[in-house]
Amino acid sequence: MEYNISDKAVTKYKSDCLVLPVNKDTTLPEGLPEACAAQIKACVKSGDFSGNAQQTLLISAPEGIAAKRLLLIGTGSKDPINIIALGKLVSAAVAAVNATGAANAAWLLDASLASPLSGEEQLLEVVRLVDAASYRFDHYCSSKKASTLTKWTFMTSDSKAGMKKALAQGKALASGVAFARDLGNQPPNVCFPTWLTEQARVLAKHHEKLKVSVVSEKQAEKLGMGAFCAVSKGSEREGQIIVFEYQGAKGKPVALVGKGVTFDTGGISLKPGAAMDEMKYDMCGAASVFGTVKAVCEMGLPINLVAVVAAAENMPDGRASRPGDIVKTLSGQTVEILNTDAEGRLVLCDALTYVQNKYKPSTVIDIATLTGACVVALGAHAQAVYANDDALSEALLNAGKQSGDRGWPMPLWDDYQGQLDSPFADMANIGGPKGGSITAACFLSRFTKDVKWAHLDIAGTAWISGGKVKGATGRPVPMLTRYLMNLANA
Ligand code: BES
Ligand code: MN
Ligand code: ZN
């Protein structure tokens, strides 16, 4: 979809559909012709439209409006709405516009629609939300499901540099989110570790400031990544540690580390069959790293970023790890693998050590679909945020609030560490049934002692399970990108 802004009078701008958010008081923005306002008032009077949240009403173009149709969309509030309500409003509007078969649409921007967002921030978010609502993954469908919409224009009298920048940033964020969703939705017979490497190389080709390098599985073994290799060796597909370097500024880099398990069967601790297909999404941490890197590149953020993806397939095989195996991690610490299905922490711990040794980052953030326990704890709406530094935790939670891609803080207390005790090695890779998301985070904390570190457990937020709307969400690309934008502005 092509997005642009126009400062043409709303009366004169030709489009298939003009979208007009209307609040609960049904006060209309300035600039609408009298006849148009009268027609809308008549709809309110007749009871056809009340401004309820996500209520839509399509009317043919009132006199004095160059658009073919007008779509009223209720905000459901007398006051400005928050980012979450804005997201719902945009999805309802996009669905209604799509249903008309329109090729293009215009959206009348009103800075007072959402709070506490500035007009510029609102534009950035609406671009991202329109794009997300228009997203389809139909690469493998013979009949395409894609919408007919190709152009979306934002009508605003303020077309100054700030708005142009917000539009560009919104587009960059949207393309990062869509990229993460595309990678997540790919089937696991296509999306495997070396395929991810190819995608990384394609991305780097398009961006001068971005470099990619790869640690092959053989090299990983030589380096001493015993935990990563313990997972990857059960697969015919070669594991990969994919490393992005984006240099938009000097100084110590921020590091992102993504879990890229391209399919998680559980290994010898085989998972039950029901919905196992969804374990293709076990690389969504990696996908969010790819998406965030793409957004950062397109925005050209003045930051120094390294991003590492630990890509492996967790398969049962004659060479696969067994429960009871003891492996030595790159950090030197040993791990007793009690359950081969707790593989995410194994691939991540070596990637975490690697990035710290090689790049001396100021901050490390890992992102992983790490535990089913996290889905039980927080459901599908918030990702778990763990951190060994309060300011970092706050910064991520704030970025989540700002972008509507919310997280929730979780404890990393020492009290939980004992659950990882092993009689035979420095630690076990599982901590029993209690607090499963927390003990997984505790495991990772043992590999990130001398750096500011946060861990996002995105098992509940990275995809929508079951049903017709099943698919990757692109989370937490908005949270991470907003966090990095805030860093760049600080
Ligand atoms: N990839 C899964 C976590 C997961 C499960 C994400 C369901 C989303 C939905 C992870 O590798 C895993 O299998 N974790 C185990 C850990 C357990 C063996 C300690 C789990 O959560 O059951
Ligand atoms: Mn697993
Ligand atoms: Zn997994």
Count of the domains: 2
Mean pLDDT: 96
Major beta sheet, strand line-up: 7-8-10-9-13-17-14-15
Shape: elongated
Strand count, sense and barrel status of the largest sheet are: 8 strands, mixed
Overview of the molecule:
With 490 residues, the protein is α/β, with parallel strands linked by helices. The protein folds into 2 domains: 2-137 and 149-156, 3-Layer(aba) Sandwich (Leucine Aminopeptidase, subunit E, domain 1), CATH 3.40.220.10; 176-489, 3-Layer(aba) Sandwich (Aminopeptidase), CATH 3.40.630.10. Helices cover 36% and strands 21% of the residues. It has 13 helices and 19 strands. The protein has helices at residues 34-46, 83-99, 119-134, 161-185, 193-206, 217-223, 226-232, 284-299, 344-359, 372-378, 390-403, 436-445, 477-489, and strands spanning 2-6, 17-22, 56-60, 69-74, 104-108, 151-155, 210-216, 240-247, 254-264, 304-314, 326-328, 334-336, 363-368, 383-387, 407-409, 427-428, 452-457, 463-464, 471-472. An 8-stranded mixed beta sheet has the order 7-8-10-9-13-17-14-15, sandwiched between helices. Strands 1-6-5-2-4-3 form a 6-stranded mixed beta sheet, with helices on one face. Strands 11-12-16 form a 3-stranded mixed beta sheet. A hairpin with a 5-residue loop joins strand 11 and strand 12. Helix 7 (226-232) packs across helix 9 (344-359). The chain is elongated, with a radius of gyration of 24 Å. The two termini are 32 Å apart. The model has no long low-confidence stretch (mean pLDDT 96). Bound molecules: ligand BES, manganese (II) ion (MN) and zinc ion.
